[in-house]
Transcription regulator (Microscilla marina ATCC 23134), 102 residues
Amino acid sequence: MDLKLATEIGKCLSNQTRVKIMEWLKEPALNFYPDEPLKHAQDGVCVTYIQEKAQLSQSTISTYLTNMEKCGLLIITRHGKWSYFKRNEDTIANYCKFISNQ
């Protein structure tokens, strides 16, 4: 990981809601409707569920998720008009390693 990418990730994580999203996505079954199975759960969580839990506008959540995906924190999978997000554990591990070596 280079300094530029680490800086972009740091910017994404400088917002409490984005950090919460990362926490929620770590255990999606517990954080998003634990009593009902999630459709396409292997691909992550639908934007709608994230937006409802965060209680922010759809446009704000979409901007957050897009920025997090661009810097590699999240992986997006699309099924028709629906977008699903999950954590990119490889990038997270590389970021933690980079930070611990600085």
Summary: Helices lie at 3-12, 16-26, 28-31, 47-54, 58-70, 89-100.
